Amino acid sequence: MSNTATAFTAGSPARPLTSRNSPNHAHTSRAWLSPLPIAAAPATVNASVSTRRCPPPYNRAMKALVTGGTGFVGSHLIEQLRARGDDVVALCRPGSNRGLLEDIGAEVRYGDLDDLASLEAACAECDVVYHCAARVEIIGAWDAFRRTTIDGTRRLVDAAVKCGVKRFVFVSSCGVYHPRLMAAGQTINEFTESPDPPEWFPYAKAKLAAERVVRELAPPMEWTIIRLGYLYGPRNRTMKSYLEPVMKGGIMTLLGDGSNPMALVYVADAAKAILLAGVTPAAAGKLLIAGGHEHLTQKDYFDAMADGFNLPRVTKKVPYGVAFFFGWLGEYLFKSGPRAAAMRRCAIALTGLPQRINCDYTQKLLNWKPETRFADGMHEAFRWYHAEYNRPAGASTSPVRR
Predict the structure, then answer these.
(1) Which residues span the domain enclosing 209?
(2) Residues with Cβ within 8 Å of residue 276, at least 6 apart in sequence
(3) What is the mean pLDDT of residues 373-396?
(4) The domain spanning residue 211 has which CATH number?
(5) Where does the pLDDT of residue 198 fall: very low under 50, low under 70, confident under 90, or very high at 90 and above?
(6) Of 272, 232, 172, 246, which Cα lies nearest the Cα of 382?
(7) Which of 74, 285, 301, 381 lies 20 to 30 A from 402 at CA?
(8) Is this structure's pTM higher than 0.85?
């Protein structure tokens, strides 16, 4: 998930969904997609838009556009693309701080998902688009999710097709699976069919609708959709805006006994999977999942957060059904602040239901596996957090800039 949280306004029109049913259509040789060694030097692509679908030699670096470049996922993805030797264009909203992106050698272009012209300018001469930007709050009016996540994705797909981009990677979420599957204890994999998310989960409904936009409108581009598990790690600014206030305010409770598994995945591991989804030929036309590799529970997660914030561990327990009822009630009582985010049915379901995610297919297809131990990942998350938010007055800024 990216850190692009502010809703975009309606803007340039985008083409509507059609009845096209060719999600696996292959339009060009995929030799260019072969992964490069880390030491490969960036290449400058000078082909005109009209010839962009002619694949460059596979041993040359690609040019990638990453939306949501200043966000949680996008910034880690850009780091890994640059380490691989790729040229990277980072699409950022006007006013975003581009310090980190410039430090790691990305080209920053300001634009917005509601501005088709800015999207076309960003897509020009790119081989791959990684779409990480989205509205990331799980609460809010449906219209805000529609404008940002659905309409914004449609415009970006239109721009990418017009500019001759060859691969479009859409970053989605395992939150799109209906809570009833989780409640039933079902193990979910890349081939699991699920009902549409409920009306009370607009974030998930918008993500799934955007996936359908990509499937329908991306051809003749190759497309890949990758759903991420529950992310944690450095640059997660919800640690400050949501998690710390909720834990300090005594709002946080264990839902049930806290033993339900959570599909926690370290952000840099997820970013590696996203990168590979864009350069692996066999990933074209596929739905993938990037989840974690350790058996971790809700209590493990809350304990690690409390320890990192130097707060008492959460011991209060509420039966899941009771918490779900109060989530329904909270949707009417709280419209803003930490309670508004915590006391929502969608938040209760995400945290309190068992998340049994199997991503063996993705691991084999991408030759990828999550490698970061939870304890190590949390250490890195809080090392960043304390450097970013607990600096003495007048101290220099941390290496990660907003």
Answers:
(1) 60-236+263-294+356-372
(2) 35, 283, 366, 367, 368
(3) 83
(4) 3.40.50.720
(5) very high
(6) 232
(7) 301
(8) no
